Amino acid sequence: MTPLAQAKSYAAEAVASGPATVAPPSFDGQGWLVVVNLAMMTAAFVLALMMAVDLVRHIWRRWRCDRPSHPVTVWRAMVLCFAVGIGLRSGGAAIVLWGWNPLRPDDTGALLLLQRMIDPVAVACGLTGLAIAYLSAPGVVYQLRRKPHPLDFWTKLPLLWRPAAIVGLSVAAAIGVVATR
After folding, report:
1. 148 burial class (0-12, 13-18, 19+ CB within 10 angstroms)?
2. How far is Cα 90 from Cα 41, in angstroms, rounded to an integer?
3. Which of 34, 115, 138, 170 is the least buried, fewest Cβ under 10 Å from its Cβ?
4. Is-contact 126 82, C-beta < 8 A?
C-alpha cells in the first residue's frame, strides 16, 4: 500500500464497494474501449514526453543565443507547454488504466486521486500554450508573411515511423493487458 493510499479515500471506498471489473466501471464492460483508451493514452504520454525532452534539449543548447521574443523561442515554449499538458493528462489517465485493480482498492483510489491532482496542472500547461499562441500570433504571422519559408512535409514523413511504432506497440500492449486481466 502506498503512503498516499493509506489516507481515507472516497475513491478507494467506491472501488471496494463497486463491481470487481477489469477496468473502471465507466467503460461499461466494453473491452475494446478499454484497449483503445489504454493504447492511446499510453502512446500520447510517450510521444508527448519525447517531444518535451527534445524541446528542452534544443532550448538548453540554444539558451545563450536565442532571444525570448524570437519566433523560434516562442514556438518552442508554446509547443513545450502543449506537450507537457498532453503528457500529464494522458499519463495520468494511462496510470489509472494500467494500475486499475479492484482487489487493491486503496492503491487504485490513490491512482485516481493522483490523476485528479495532475489534471489541473495539465490544463494549466495547455492554457499557457494557448496564451502564448494568442499573444504571439500577430507578430509571428507578420514575420511569416514578410519572409515566408515553404514547408515540405512529404520529405519528413519517414520521421513518423518511430511514433507510429510507439502507437503500434501501445495497441499491442493494451490488447495483451485487457485480454489477460
Report:
1. exposed
2. 5
3. 138
4. yes
In a domain, 84, yes or no: yes
Among candidates 74, 35, 9, 78, which has minimal Cα distance to 179? 35
Q: Is residue 125 part of a domain?
A: yes
Domain count of the fold of the chain: 1
Asked whether the beta carbons of 112 and 95 are under 8 A apart, the reply is no
How large is the average pLDDT for residues 73-77?
90
- Domain extent at residue 93: 45-148
Top mean pLDDT of 23-37, 52-66, 162-176 is at 162-176
The pLDDT, as a whole number, for residue 6 is: 54
Would residue 179 count as lying in a domain?
Answer: no
pTM of the model: 0.84
Q: Does 113 map to a domain? A: yes
The three grid cell numbers given for residue 56, joined into one nine-digit string: 528542452
Residue 79's nearest CA partner among 159, 121, 133, 120 is 133
Place of cell 496564451: 131
